[in-house]
Amino acid sequence: MEPIRLAVNGRTDIGQVRDENEDSIRCHSDPDHPFAYIVVADGMGGYSGGATASDIAADTLQGELDKLLDTPFLTCSRERQHIMLRTALVEGIGICNRKILETKKTRPQFSQMGTTLVAAAIWMDFLIVAHIGDSRAYLWNDYGLQRLTRDHSVVQEMIDAGQLTAEQAQTSQVRNHITRALGISEPVEATVNSWTLTESALLLLCSDGLTEYIDDHTIERVLATYRPALECVYHFIDDANRRGGRDNISAGIIEFCNRPEAVTEFSGDPITLQPKATHDITVRKSRR
């Protein structure tokens, strides 16, 4: 098995309209082990409530993931490591939820706060993604772009039920409504999926401030074109701001390289990818 190289980059931006950034992002790549993660939280509630909720979620989950690489983890079997990573992610999300709920009880001014969350971690060639709400994760490799998450939103449920098309969802009166979030009730249910990575790839996590303006076709084009690949986060945020920037915008990328030539591929000259037709939906949350 080729040595695995992981690198990360992330950025959050207030956008062009809002007075406060309610997004939070945490990125980490371990210098000694093939371990990396990104956490993106998109808060809601206004008047600093959303920022507080997203900070609690991002800080808490970061702390739980940072504790993972101890001696028991490093010395156990690969299968056991996968279980431990999943457990850390799921239990960490539960802790995030309880902390937000506890804060709401002690700070009545934040009674309406909550946050979406999307988190991804890679250990060696094992990728795990958990999400709540409409912040998303994507994977891009030589085969194209794959969306790894399905929005927890009213319009997505209507699309799944055949009651709405993707095009109609873009102008739906309920397109801002999410169906799951941290800080609403106990317990919280995250969607968790995992994959084994066999090809070098780019993993993108983002808040809906990005996907409000940039569809899957454009995401694929940017990830396939710009090098160094980690600088795509700046292109994404700049593009969203140029197109209106009505929401806060967050994007984080993990480079996963499992062959030597991929390091040059992701850091060197642009490559071209023939785009495929996609149908995308755009959703945003109700903030107030």
Which key terms come to mind for this protein?
single chain; 288 residues; alpha+beta; five-stranded antiparallel sheet; 10 strands; disordered C terminus; PPM-type-like_dom_sf; EC 3.1.3.16; PPM-type_phosphatase-like_dom; PP2C
Structure description:
- It comes from Microbulbifer hydrolyticus.
- Its EC number is 3.1.3.16.
- One of its GO terms (molecular function) is protein serine/threonine phosphatase activity.
- InterPro entries: PP2C, PPM-type-like_dom_sf, PPM-type_phosphatase-like_dom.
- It is built from 9 helices and 10 strands.
- Helix 1 packs antiparallel against helix 3.
- It has a single domain, classed as Phosphatase 2c, domain 1 (4-Layer Sandwich).
- The protein is globular, with a radius of gyration of 18 Å.
- The strands form 2 sheets. A 5-stranded antiparallel β-sheet has the order 1-10-9-6-7.
- The protein has 288 residues and is an alpha+beta fold.
Q: Write out the strand line-up for the largest beta sheet, numbering strands in chain order.
A: 1-10-9-6-7
Order of helices and strands: EEEHHHEEEEHHEEHHHEH
What is the helical fraction, as a range of percent?
25-40%
Topology-level CATH name: Phosphatase 2c, domain 1
Tell me how many strands there are: 10
Radius of gyration: 18 Å
The share of residues in extended strands comes to 25-35%
Query: How many helices does DSSP assign?
Result: 9
**Would you state the CATH class?**
Alpha Beta
Describe the global form. globular
**Unreliable runs:** 269-288
Distance between the termini: 50 Å
Class per helix and strand makeup: alpha+beta
Q: What CATH architecture would you give? A: 4-Layer Sandwich
Instruction: Give the total of domains.
Output: 1
Average pLDDT, rounded to a whole number, is 89
CATH superfamily: PPM-type phosphatase domain
The largest sheet is: 5 strands, antiparallel
Protein name: Protein phosphatase
GO molecular function: protein serine/threonine phosphatase activity
Domain PPM-type phosphatase: 7-256
Enzyme class: hydrolase
